[in-house]
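INFO batch 0412 | record 1 of 1 | parsing
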Amino acid sequence: MSFLDHIRHANNWNRGDFRAFAVAGHLVGHIRLDRIERLRAFPDTFIIGPDHIALAPGLEDFASRSAAMEEVLEVLRGEGEFPGWRGEYYPIMPEWGDAPLMQVERATCPWLGVRSWGVHINGFVRRGDGLHMWIARRARDKPSYPGMLDNMVAGGQPIGLGLMENIVKECAEEADIPADIAANARAVGSISYCHQFEDGVKPDQQFCYDLELPADFTPRNTDGEVESFELWPIERVTETVRETFEFKFNCNLVIIDFLIRHALIDADGEPDYMALSLGLRRGP
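INFO prediction complete | emitting tokens
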């Protein structure tokens, strides 16, 4: 296999399996075709058209839209949908920086095919023998991607929290990184993808950060979401990404982006360099 296989896997969605979902005239999601009939049971909330689904016109502001969606999604939850419900809410907006049109529970985002945002932090150490990266293994009881390899710290971006606030929070919860160290995380760009899976589709965008850690610091999980941390030579990280699917799917893209930025993947040595560079930033 190759690095490019991860780009393909992360962008495997088939638009024909979905119908567009609009809020206040803005395209915000894509709902799987086999779920549309279920939404007809909520005519006060959804207008089902031939080419798209929309919220009812009477839902004209953030509060009314959010309340109507909460009511519907709670009914579906009672029927067995959204087993990973956490009581954490994500903003629904056409683009990052727009005013949120409404909010929904994070576990419902793939079902609705709405974009969510998150932060991924590459924790690394410089040693005499080269660059090393801290790798997390997800807890075996996590509802999503249990036991898979992950970036040192990563988390979704909830509504009402700034990016750096979220980084400090996630660093403390997932890796016991003090706030003064976490605040040194350096914004280095973003990745995007549109990934179809059993729950629906994730047309997501992730903010990437690099955090160089002291050589004597060891991450320690405090919220139960990480089973263990290991410090790997960057060569092992590179080989694992290139040759396996052991990392959670979007973490591969974050690491590929890191490897390109640190000249560990370059245009002379990697025939897919241009395809990788362009493929890290896709969307529906």
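INFO post-check: The mean pLDDT is 95.
INFO record closed
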